[in-house]
Amino acid sequence: MNLNFFDQFLSPQMLGIPLILLAMVIPPMLIFTTTNRLVPNRLITIQSWAVFVFTKQLMLPLNKPGHKWAAILLSLMLFLLSLNMLGLLPYTFTPTTQLSMNMGLAVPLWLATVLIGLRNQPTISLGHLLPEGTPTLLVPVLIIIETISLFIRPLALGVRLTANLTAGHLLIQLTSTATFVLLPIMTTTASLTLIVLLLLTGLEIAVAMIQAYVFTLLLSLYLQENV
Question: Which residues form the signal peptide (predicted)?
């Protein structure tokens, strides 16, 4: 039997309909809950506290005009976190392992921050392409380098998220496959491999949370340069 470890990154289908739509719609429905109680329950209290702490941390480096992006960045963070955590469940699909989807999120948001800077403060935004005190001979070279680095930003956002999640999923699948293969032959080695698998799963949970936060944090830093 030929085993392809990359089959887990294919979007599953049912009756010819991609299930990625369900994977993107269900997580927000599970996160956002409403209640008519005067005093909310523990789940809603924890959610409210986490949202407050994250929003406060994200908005600290931004000035007042940048606070308009709080709802967008918070929604993006919860969306990515939900999709990343969803992929760790058995028989599920992780949409954020697809570079096309991550670039679809990174490029428009990065472009929005750049356009806001060009509209509100064009001189300062263009000034980022040329550091102050640059020798005259190096001006053309530095402008080209800074322009390339500017356009690489959305690519770095999408590739970083895709690469980290893909590597983690491959490691988990390789370790789990080794555990099942070694179980009837070498029980002791299979037990050690199982412990490694559990540790990798915990690490992947942390990576899923951190990558969602890093994606949003870098966007907020790009926004900080342009508002």
Answer: none
Distance CA 34, CA 196 (A): 39
SS3 12: coil
* Residue 76 and residue 109 in contact, taking contact as beta carbons nearer than 8 Å: yes
How high is the pLDDT of residue 155?
A: 93
To the nearest 10 degrees (0 to 180), the angle between helices 187-224 and 70-86 is 170
The bridge status of strand 13-14 relative to strand 17-18 is antiparallel
H or E element at residue 25: helix 20-31
- pLDDT tens by residue, 80-99: 988 888 878 776 778 888 88
Q: Give the tens place of pLDDT for each residue, 111-122.
A: 998 898 888 888
Q: Which residues of 212-226 are buried (b: 16+ CB within 10 A; e: fewer)?
A: bbbbbbbbbebbeeb
**Residue given tokens 């039997």 in the structure block:** 1
Distances (CA, A) of 77 to 8, 140, 163, 211: 24, 38, 18, 10
What pTM, to 2 d.p., does this model score? 0.79
